[in-house]
Amino acid sequence: MTSYLLERAWVDGAVHDDVLVDVVDGRFARVVRENRPSSGVATPDNGRSPRPAGDSATPTRVPGISLPGLANTHSHAFHRALRGRTQRGTGTFWTWREQMYAVAARLDPDSYRRLARAAYREMVAAGCTSVGEFHYLHHQPDGTPYDDPDAMGAALRQAAAEAGIRLVLLDTCYLSSGFGAPPEGVQVRYSDGTAERWAERVERAGSGPAAIHSVRAVPRDQLHVFRDRSPLHVHLSEQVAENDACLAAYGVTPTRLLHEEGLLGPATTVVHATHLTDDDIELLGRTRTNVCVTPTTERDLADGIGPVRRLHDAGCRISVGSDSHAVVDPWEELRAVELDERLATQRRGHWTAAELLDVGTAHGVLGLDDVGTIAVGKRADLVTLDPTTPRTAGTGADEHTAVFAATASDVVRVMVDGVVVHTPGDAEQIGRELDEAVGALWGTPGRTPGRTPWPAP
Asked: Which domain holds residue 443?
């Protein structure tokens, strides 16, 4: 057993002082907040450092604001190599996609592992303890399977294990360049030919994490293969052009198509849901389908602002993801949910900080129902923020500090399953790993010489 005394912690929907937690086998075995010990007697001597009578163990004090680990519910790890490059010039989502394809063509299992490990370490450093990896880069550049058909997936699993993040690998089916058209160019790396062959490759009979890339990438007559998959994720209505093409091909919106094929519901998460009709919103809410939004990616790609509050009010559980990793900062994603709503409506105050923390800890949409709260029996994930930095000082050291002031740079400690996986001293090494992995992919040397921060003084 390991014990920690959290200076301030988000427990039961509020920030409390001096929260004692005991961790056994990676889970919270006891949570005692303020002057309310779960057993024993509170006295003037133990009130500010609660400890049941008869237990003499000295807990490790953790200064700062501690919260449950955050969930990054939508990631494409290899997109991290695009940061700072695709933002140049002009264009649309579709021109960005061609640049993304150029990176996808260069990866092999080894370079994929190195890049993903560095990207996952960046996520951990930002406060994420679980990640849903939307993985469709399956085969060799010419579409031939690797000797191990799961070589690229195995690279991601190894990368996550080395980075210390909990991975839910959403093996993604991608069969068409658009509504029945054959794959083009690098897309041959994504395709298994049919949904049945996709299922054979992943060797999961009838259940398990999975993803449909989009309704444009998987023909309607093959969607039935995914009806028993849980959790199931799918890109939905990110672009108006996707909606128009779906209407032309099937006579219904992408949301209505998924509903008619029996694929909406609490086990399904639709990603983006940016351009929806009123009927779409009602269907998603009525079926209790989850919605993942990725505000920093959606603004980077000029996707638009989705009706997130309306979806929440209709009955959808909302989560966030870093998606293309133009930014890896879950705190920024959370406040963007509120701030984008302000831009769209010209009105403030759509989401409380408490609601947004619930959005940020929605591990359940990844099938992880035993993580996301500081509570007995839950996985011992903690992220601790420094409330005294230039960004957080004077903001109250509470949930509003976390959501409306903090950034990834204010994370000072991350624990996953009871193991500390990040401290501030790791930042230089993470930067060096990213520099080397991305530089190798683009054929440029890394710019972090030795252990000297770049640029050198």
From this structure: 429-457
